[in-house]
Amino acid sequence: MASNRDFNYFKAFVELSGYSLKAAEILNNNLHNFNVNTIEEKVKEMHNVEHTADLEKHKVMNRLVKEFLPPIEREDIISITENIDDVIDSIEDVLIGIEIYNVQAIRPEIIKFTELIMNCCKSMNSALVEFEHFKKSKTLHDAIVEVNRLEEEGDALYINGVRNLYKTSKDPIELMVWTEIYRLLEKCCDSCEEVANNIENIVMKNS
C-alpha cells in the first residue's frame, strides 16, 4: 500500500495547473471561432474541466489532512492549490459571461487577451514544473518574472480595450457587457500572477 510519502505535492500542483491550460485553450479556440449557437455546449465543456480540477484539488486537500510531514508548510500547500484553482475558475467565468450576456459577436481585440491568457497559463505551468527543484533551478525565477510581465501586458490590454470601447460606443448595454468581460479577462491574468507571487514567497521562506 502506498504511503503518504509517495504523494508528490509539487507534481500535483503541475497536474492541477494543466487544467488551466485546457481551460485557456477552450476559451481561446471558442472565441477565435465564435458561434453563438454552440456557446451553451462549450460552457458545459469548460465546466467539465473546472469540475475535474475541483476533484483534483480535493484530492490534494484530503491527502494533506493525513500528511505527517509535508515538504512545505501546510498553509502554503493550501494557498497555492487554491490559487491555481482560482485561475481555472476565472477562465471559466469569461466563457460564462459571454453566454449569460448573450454576446452575438466577439470584438477583435478580445482575441489578443485570450492568447495572452494562454501564455500566462503556460508560464505559470513552467514555474510550477520548476518549483519542486526551487533550491537548484536556474529557470524558476525567469518563469515567475515572465508571468509578472504578461500580467502587466494584460493590464495594458484592459486599459486600452476599455478606453477604446467607450470611444467607439454609446450603447449602454454594450458598454456594460464588454466592460464586465474585460474585467473578467484581466482577472485571469491577475490570478496567474497570484500563483507566481505565491511561489516566490514560498521559495523565500524556504531558502
H/E series, N to C? HHHHHH
Write down the CATH topology: Methane Monooxygenase Hydroxylase, Chain G, domain 1
Helix proportion range: over 70%
What's the Cα radius of gyration? 18 Å
Q: Any low-confidence stretches, pLDDT <50, length ≥5? A: none
Number of strands: 0
Any overview of this molecule?
- By secondary structure, the protein is an all-alpha fold.
- It has a single domain, classed as Methane Monooxygenase Hydroxylase, Chain G, domain 1 (Up-down Bundle), CATH 1.20.58.
- 80% of the residues lie in helices and 0% in strands.
- The protein has helices at 9-32, 39-66, 74-100, 108-131, 140-168, 172-205.
- Helix 4 packs antiparallel against helix 5 (140-168), helix 4 (108-131) packs parallel to helix 6 and helix 5 (140-168) packs antiparallel against helix 6 (172-205).
- The longest helix has 34 residues, at 172-205.
- It is globular and about 60 Å long.
- The two termini are 33 Å apart.
